[in-house]
Specification:
The protein is mainly alpha-helical. The chain is globular, with a radius of gyration of 16 Å. Strand 1 and strand 2 form a beta hairpin. The protein contains seven helices and three strands; from the N terminus they run H-E-E-E-H-H-H-H-H-H. It has one domain.
């Protein structure tokens, strides 16, 4: 979620076939699949994977069945509630972040804030996060299908080069 701006349900609903780790540019495809349906407000898209998340996936024991969930411990036929609870635990207990405004969903909003600080075009930032808007829809339609992840790689690199993108009031 931190490195792609995806929703909890999108991450929890990934299948092995949605990860393209061996392509020239490793990426993840967020789309409707057999374990998760994208909502009308969600944009199907391909998002490049930067080194930290790519390394994490490569170290993770992935199933060999292409239809298997990427995160079987956080996927259930009843939704992604266990994923949300696990993420809240990581934020609060493992990372020690107690500020009430910082929740797992904050990772998604951080992509938006960081993209603004990096001066990444708003339409492309919305596309990366899967926001359906006039701008992101236009980008999606311009390329016919999903925007090739190579086009977004420089944007993603710029977004994660930003180290100062906002503040919290005490």
């Amino acid at each position: 979620m931190i490195y792609t701006g995806c929703r909890t349900s999108e991450a929890a609903g990934l299948q092995i076939k949605d990860l393209r780790l061996d392509n020239n540019l490793a990426h993840v495809v967020f789309r409707t699949n057999t374990i998760r349906r994208m909502e009308k407000s969600d944009l199907e898209r391909a998002v490049p994977l930067l080194t930290p998340v790519l390394d994490a996936f490569r170290s993770y024991k992935l199933a060999t069945d292409s239809d298997a969930p990427v995160f079987p411990n956080h996927y259930s036929k009843n939704g992604h509630n266990n994923a949300s609870a696990a993420l809240r635990h990581i934020v609060r207990e493992v990372s020690g972040i107690k500020h009430e405004d910082v929740v797992p969903y904050s990772a998604r909003h951080t992509i938006r804030d960081r993209s603004a600080a990096a001066r990444v075009d708003l339409a492309r930032a919305e596309y990366i996060m899967g926001h359906v808007s006039d701008g992101s829809s236009k980008i999606h339609k311009e390329y016919g299908t999903k925007t090739p992840p190579e086009i977004l790689f420089d944007d993603m690199s710029a977004i994660f080069a930003v180290s100062d993108w906002g503040f919290y009031e005490s």
